[in-house]
TrEMBL record:
Entry's transmembrane regions: 15-33, 40-61, 67-89, 101-120, 140-166
PANTHER family xref list: NITRATE/NITRITE SENSOR PROTEIN NARX-RELATED, OXYGEN SENSOR HISTIDINE KINASE NREB
GO molecular function: kinase activity
Pfam families assigned to the protein according to its UniProt record, in alphabetical order: DUF5931, HATPase_c
Single GO BP term: phosphorelay signal transduction system
Residue span of region Disordered: 348-367
Domain Histidine kinase/HSP90-like ATPase: from-to ranges: 274-366
Descriptive protein name: Histidine kinase
Keywords linked to the UniProt accession: Kinase, Membrane, Transferase, Transmembrane, Transmembrane helix, Two-component regulatory system
NCBIfam families for the chain: HK_morpho_MacS
Annotated InterPro entries: DUF5931 (IPR045975), HATPase_C_sf (IPR036890), HATPase_dom (IPR003594), Sensor_HK_TwoCompSys (IPR050482)
Chain ranges of the DUF5931 domain: 6-172
Keyword match ATP-binding: no
Amino acid sequence: MGLVGLEVVLWRAVAVYRFVALGYAAVLMVNNYHSYTRPWLGWTVLAVMAVWSIVATYTYGRADLRGWPLLIADLLVTMGCLIASHWVVTEASLRRGSATLPMVWVAAVVAAWSFSGGRWRGVIAALFISGADLWLRGSVTMATVNATVLLLLTGFILGYVVSLALDAEEQLQRATKLEAATKERERLARGIHDSVLQVLAIISKRGAELGGEAAELGRLAGEQEVTLRALVSVAPPPTASGQADLRERLRPFASAQVQIASPATVVPLPAEVADELAAAVNSALDNVRVHGGPQTRAWVLLEDEGDSVTVTIRDNGPGFPNGRLAQAAQEGRLGVAQSIVGRLRDIGGSASVTSHDGTEVELRVPR
């Protein structure tokens, strides 16, 4: 049952409660109408409750109508039916704690407010209903205290439980989608591994053996094999707490030209942060491949410093002159500014790029 399905079930439960409570109010009316000062008004209120129960069932059943206008209208109708007891039930009976005209029917609006906005919204509705009931009774009695406490508990507990249920349902949906996507990626990875990657590996090996132009072709095939292997590699999914091991996110970048050094223990980070940090590392390595040439090597160092995580990418390429990055940004080439510096800034981290006997990129993310 999906998230939408759960909401439908909850609102159907409120609708069922309205009609069951309406039936109970009708039974009380049949038993007590002879003692009412204005029986005709009592029957009128009962008819209004019946009509509103039908209207509320239809409107709350549509997600596009469950806004403040409906919630306020529901509260006003409920309070009106409750306050109408003042002109139907004798004052002495009300002071003794006798039943009002709607009785437990008033709890439906508290449940509706709780389902629509959580426990605190349910508490607000309960306070309005309790205030109207206190005005009817004219004084604080054990009956008014019990009614108020029950309504407040209903609003708070229902809102809390519903919030937990909806959150759990949403997390289950995300986990189901992630599992399906992971399985599909694993299936594609197996197919690519059995065909494309093996062909590229053979070309790379044979090209190196033949030498000459074939060696260059073999080198290019080897680079593409590494890139494709990184793309189809399946990173472990986040844990139940949403944490991911950054080491596993960086492992696919290792190749003959890229060496990765990382701690022996897990380096946990929120999954979204780990993904963005790994993407920034990949961008830095792309720059090494594009600007450094085929002989350039790179070293990636991952350090877990407790309160922060640092990834350093160094290469032995030609580097770049001072001011080159600023000039590139002014010319509209924002590769480093957006894919590396911008990524780290968006996740609350920092990035620095320096050039001296090669290029060094330092990425730091606080915990």
